[in-house]
Write a structure and sequence with these properties.
This protein is of the alpha/beta class. Helix content is 30%, strand content 25%. It contains twelve helices and 21 strands. It binds ligand LLP.
Length: 434
């Protein structure tokens, strides 16, 4: 059990000083719970890991992991910037109080409307294609402003992770190709544009990475590009944005990748490259998502029924499925599961845990050893603070779960549970059906 959880004398799980059983009774299930202190601790640990080893660093939390307004406000209060990938994430960052100058806008297919909003707020835009360079220059010119930009490059680094979340390989859709010289062409083109201020280089090699080596390879390759840009185009790049990607242990026996270890290796590689190329010491920018919020969040779900099936583990049907948490169905991801009201009971039997939807992919865990499970028990699904609610859906017209924030014994709703009215509020009936 991770250090921010405990167990009370009734054998109930406690998070943020509040009993999970009480939370489920008070707010209903399925319920996402975020531990505010853990979010702060994770952020501070990540920040310190780099700040202790490099002079100029910027950390921008990746909103796609969890863009709940209250969670974003917590991070903003820590002085953390924002990495956003859509208009709504950008608006959330501004609403949370993050100054435009501390926001980075990424994505391979941004709309003119999104770009306009970003330029108006002085957000740093990482451009993802040669065409986007033209588009942003044009929009900035119409607005009579200069757009602060970087270019996302594809450094061709293999990341040991699920293929759906590896983004730094040549064949991925992201960034301008380094090997063929396209990345340099991008900088050449951007340099000529009157309405662009080129300040950054961006790359992101993938997510859920538990090995420091790909990050070392990334910084080496990116600084080589920075040196080429200086040598061939006489441009100095101030901000070297390395994206996110540090993973967390999801399985109880998995080892963490300490951010200090990555930071020490990445900054050592950076120092070496800075010296050997004789380039300026850049500001290093990081966009962690999962590391900051994943283990701060749990999903509480109620057991409704159990069922025996000779020869295979018993089925347990709970009220949260792939609608609430799609990671097991989409990536075959492991999320540890326990019985929140029987934390002191010995696991004795294997169970398969199913959601309520009519799809066989609708499971949250298979072959899990748990204490005897009965209807009414409360299951806790761990490490869902990142890419949990943010990837949830209304499959089978199931309203999405609520989210509460807990801190020192207090609990408050930070996202209301959706209702049936909410789900159909945008439906319309054409007049010929009236
Ligand atoms: N920066 C960029 C440009 C990104 O695309 C991402 C994540 C991040 C930062 C944050 O990466 P992190 O530190 O969280 O690894 N839905 C998947 C993860 C997709 C990640 C996409 N990009 C999952 O549930 O595992």
């Amino acid at each position: 059990m991770k250090s921010h959880f405990s167990i009370d004398e009734q054998g109930h799980l406690v998070i943020g000083g509040v009993s999970a059983v009480e939370l489920a009774e008070r707010f209903g299930t399925p319920l996402y719970v975020m531990d505010e202190q853990r979010v702060r601790e994770n952020y501070r640990r990540f920040y310190r890991a780099y700040a202790d080893r490099w002079k100029k660093i910027i950390v921008c939390y990746a909103y796609k992991a969890n863009s709940n307004l209250a969670v974003c406000k917590v991070l903003c209060s820590e002085g953390c910037g924002a990495e956003v990938s859509s208009e709504c994430e950008l608006r959330t960052a501004l609403r949370a109080g993050v100054p435009g100058e501390h926001i980075i806008f990424n994505g391979n297919c941004k709309s003119p409307q999104e770009l306009k909003l970003a330029i108006e707020n002085n957000v740093l835009i990482n451009l993802d294609s040669l065409q986007e360079i033209e588009v942003v220059d044009e929009i900035a010119s119409k607005l009579g402003r200069k757009a602060r930009v970087g270019i996302r490059v594809n450094p061709d680094v293999k990341a040991p992770t699920h293929p759906y979340v590896a983004t730094g390989l040549r064949e991925s859709k992201f960034g301008l190709d380094v090997r063929s010289g396209q990345a340099l062409d991008g900088y050449r083109l951007a340099k000529e544009k009157e309405n662009l201020e080129v300040v950054a280089i961006h790359s992101h090699i993938g997510s859920q990475i538990l090995d420091p080596r790909p990050f070392e390879e990334q910084i080496r390759k990116v600084l080589e590009v920075v040196a080429k840009i200086r040598d061939e185009l006489d441009m100095e790049i101030e901000l070297v944005d390395l994206g996110g990607g540090i993973g967390i242990p999801y399985k109880p026996d998995e080892k963490e990748l300490p951010p200090e270890e990555v930071a020490s290796k990445v900054t050592a590689a950076a120092r070496e490259a800075v010296e050997s190329y004789g380039i300026q010491e850049p500001t290093l920018v990081f966009e962690p998502g999962r590391y900051i919020v994943a283990d701060a969040g749990v999903l509480l779900a109620r057991v409704r029924y159990t069922k025996e099936r000779p020869g295979i583990p018993d089925w347990v049907a709970i009220d949260a499925g792939m609608n609430a948490l799609i990671r097991p169905a989409l990536y075959d991801a492991y999320h540890h599961i326990e019985v929140a009201n029987k934390m002191l009971d010995k696991p004795t039997k294997l169970f398969n845990i199913a959601g309520p939807l009519c799809e066989s992919g609708d499971f949250l865990g298979k072959n899990r050893k748990l204490p005897e499970v009965q209807p009414g028990d409360l299951l806790v699904i761990y490490d869902v603070g990142a890419y949990g609610l943010s990837l949830s859906s209304q499959h089978t017209a199931k309203p999405r779960p609520a989210m509460v924030l807990v801190n020192s014994g207090r609990a408050a709703i930070v996202r209301e549970r959706e209702s049936c009215e909410y789900l159909t509020r945008l439906d319309r009936i054409p007049e010929w059906l009236e």
